[in-house]
Amino acid sequence: METVLEQKKDKHTKKATFPVEGMTCASCASSIESMLRTVEGVQEANVNFAGKTVQVDFKPEQVKPEQLRDTLHEIGFELLIDQHTEAELEERQAAALAKLKTKTIAAAVLAFPVFVLGMFFHNAFSWGNWAMLAFTTPVLFWAGRHFFVNAWGQAKYMRANMDTLVALSTGIAFLFSVFNTVYPEFFLSRGLEPHVYYEAVAVIIAFILLGKYLEEGAKSRSSAAIKKLMGLQPKTVRVLRGGTEAEIRIEEVQVGDRVLMLPGDRVPVDGEVVAGASYVDESMLSGEPLPVQKQAGDMLYAGTINQKGSLQLIARKTGGETMLAHIIKMVQEAQGSKAPVQKLVDKIAGIFVPVVLGIAVLTFVAWLVLGGEAYLSQALVSMISVLVIACPCALGLATPTAIMVGVGRGAENGILIKDAESLEHAYKANAILLDKTGTITVGKPSVTDVVWAEGIANQQELERLFFSMEAKSEHPIAQAIYTYYKEQGMTVQEPAYFNSLTGLGIEADFEGEKYLAGNEKLLRKEGVGIAEPLLEAARQLQQNAKTAIFFASKSQALAVFAVSDPIKPAAAEGIARMKEAGLEVYMLTGDNAQTAAAVARQVGITHYEAELLPNDKADFVKKLQAEGKVVAMVGDGINDAQALATADVSIAMGHGTDVAMDVAGITLMRSDLVQVAAAVNLSRATVQTIRQNLFWAFIYNVVCIPVAAGLLYPFTGFLLNPMVAGAAMALSSVSVVSNSLRLRGKKI
Questions:
Q1: Residues in a beta bridge with 581
Q2: Are strands 13-21 and 42-48 parallel, antiparallel or unpaired?
Q3: Single pTM value for the model
Q4: What is the CATH number of the domain that holds 279?
Q5: Which of 142, 180, 443, 545 is the most exposed, fewest CB within 10 Å of its CB?
Q6: Between the CA of residue 125 and those of 121, 129, 132, 198, 719, what are the distances in Å?
């Protein structure tokens, strides 16, 4: 993937996508969008926060990429306008993550002695303050340098974010502490203790860096699904041009080219079969485990796999127009969603900073005007108390600590949660969509029933002949039968004659005796009699969504075998629990309506949709969303990726494809539908905790800031000591973390 992912010219505008480095929160994304929109010639700018990219629609004659880069550089972000391969971008991200990890570890190591000295040995040693200054300085100016750089970049344009809060609180506390370390006589001469707050500065920086590291580590994996989807398309293609076979790059294929396909090849483009016949694995689209027979006139789709036989197809859609490309685009767009709670926190933080600054300044002025003999020292102490007590640590920890505990609680129960957004959305889910194959069913076809006609004596020998016939067949159902008997240790007897009958079945000769295996139509064509009990058994099997295969001699039907994808043992219980949790359950499948109805009936599902392609599933998700429902999607295959990306919350089964699990926000490691309701309950408990944390974080500031400003002094003579303000700040953080830890005992 290059740096500029996509460029489209529409009259006088160009649309380009650039990677962005330095984004740390949703407000950063908002700042990038608004700053780029102010550049003359830029029509639109949209940030994909998860993908770390920005798509810009601009007029090339008015603005150049260099101008866009310089605009973002002024506020602390790097726009990569040079060409970069996917590997180079990954290398840059890995290097940035490694650097952040180093800073996090270093900050934690340096903060520990500062914390011990400040909290337990305050004023115990004459050199204590100088030692804490020595340890805190690299934490602030090396590990935490980017907070100040970003805050300054935002401030130049009258903006504020969480970096601003961190820079102000730690910067003021540090300067005040340095002043008291270098010139303690200033406050001592006025009868006040020259307190220092190095421990608050160092610990705050260490905690926030840890949160940033965990967040960046999660975001760096967000593009894995896109890479796997792109990997489904081959690099080169064999085509016939002018009667000559040539191997060309996939980008060079044009609509109308005749493409050659060999067994095992991935289909490179969407096209129509014009020669040959084969079975094609379309599980990435339909989710069904049984390959589909393809012949002249049938459509093939990019990313599917040709299993048997050679094919020739005419390219109908190439490049960005294929179904696979549309799935990739849908996943890319859906991954750009932002966590709603954190976005709200960032918005409030933007207001919170100037409000606190205003209160601090007002406090200082009020004490200068109304204070007593020690008005200057009281003004300074009160202003510092306001800034220290208004530290955003509790606000910053409110969401991530609850998320971390919630994620850990889920992991203990086999529920892996990829991001905060999934937890924050799942609690609102009221409709849940379940893919059939691999989610409700096992996802692997197998022999489920064997019914023999009455009076058949040598069944064991006949089974061996039937097994030998199916071992010669290339049909997917034959593979299920072959596996069934192979596991029983049965051996193959080579037939004297074997023939595959397209659309009917197979025939073989063993020691002069002719045998048939296939559908009812084959037996009728050959004039083979079918006893009524055997025929009725076949009808019953088909009504239960099973494929019936007859085995017959040249004169009579001997047995009927049923092949199906069995329902998971706990599927019905899991669906019942979803309903108890207040979820409206739907089943989606690419299978036929008869099979869908039978499966839905067995597991207790009323609403189902059959014969759906990936885009149909995604459209059904959008339909429910348009009706006001919050939709959760559960799937396990590449065919589910588009719907998973479109849904409000996506859940993948652990045994499914890597693509499904990378797209999904939640993965169930035990592939147990009972865990779906548990995941929703966990989400509800986590979001409740987040709301409690945010409430107490804000209430803490609402109550403590006025007290720190000296509101109680005229009535009680109480003036908050900055050291107490620091302790209150620390206590607020401890209370938030403690409340988050309560999630460990929640029943889900």
A1: none
A2: unpaired
A3: 0.54
A4: 2.70.150.10
A5: 142
A6: 7, 8, 11, 15, 27
